[in-house]
Design brief:
Layout lengths: L3 E10 L6 E11 L4 E5 L6 H8 L7 E6 L2 E2 L5 H11 E4 L11 H11 L5 H10 L15 H13 L5 E5 L7 H18 L2 E5 L3 H5 L3 E6 L2 E2 L1
Parallel strand pairs: 3-8, 3-9, 6-7, 7-8
Antiparallel strand pairs: 1-2, 1-4, 4-5, 9-10
The structure holds adenosine-5'-triphosphate and magnesium ion.
The site of adenosine-5'-triphosphate has 12 residues, from strand 2 and helix 1.
Length: 219
Amino acid sequence: MSGLAIRNLAKHYGRGAEAVPVFSGVSFDVAPGEFVAIVGPSGVGKSTLLNCLAALDTWDAGSVALDGADLSALDETQRALWRRRHVGFVFQAFHVLPHLDVAQNVALPLMLLGRHDGARVAAMLDAVGLRGLGARLPQQLSGGQLQRVAIARALVHQPRLLLADEPTGNLDPGTAAQVMDLLLAQTRQHGAALVLVTHSETAAARADRVIHLRADGVH
Ligand SMILES: Nc1ncnc2c1ncn2[C@@H]1O[C@H](COP(=O)(O)OP(=O)(O)OP(=O)(O)O)[C@@H](O)[C@H]1O
Ligand SMILES: [Mg+2]
């Protein structure tokens, strides 16, 4: 089974009497080359769900599998290696490393895989409209430019699974459309599975499917 398969996923924060359920009964598939948008009100668990799909967070019940490989079967180290190779993640809060310049931030996934490629990094910077800014430090960029660094970094190693949390939230409409084009190019041309969380109707309108996350599952 290729692509992403999520079955009956359930997650809570805290323990015992303090336990706070986030969601349960979440099941859906994302085929290679498919774009699924996840929508839902603030606090419903969209970022938590993406973190589970990247194996950055743990869950209480259910399973997540990519290309038939069940993530629950992997230990911490194997999960880190799996993530490095197969996942591109655009975080809601960017997570750009402040002491690395823009080009080093974008090159990071390739460095971790031992596949550094300066031409590829330059091409990605070009593609997100940051040509010539590779030597800048993150603190010297605007919010929208930082978001584009995060997008270039998520795409540079051509991952099988692309997870994006409000990737166009800080961008003007023209730049947002360009960023969506880039995410969709990786999805359509390279068969990545794209799961994108958004409040933007324009972004959701481009999805193959829109999934509404609620506490009792997806609808
Ligand atoms: N580490 C944590 N410990 C306890 N509760 C948490 C933790 N992280 C998130 N939560 C809670 O879990 C719920 C889901 O949070 P999450 O960040 O996934 O929501 P979201 O749907 O992404 O919201 P937004 O649209 O505002 O980004 C929220 O009620 C939040 O307060
Ligand atoms: Mg969120």
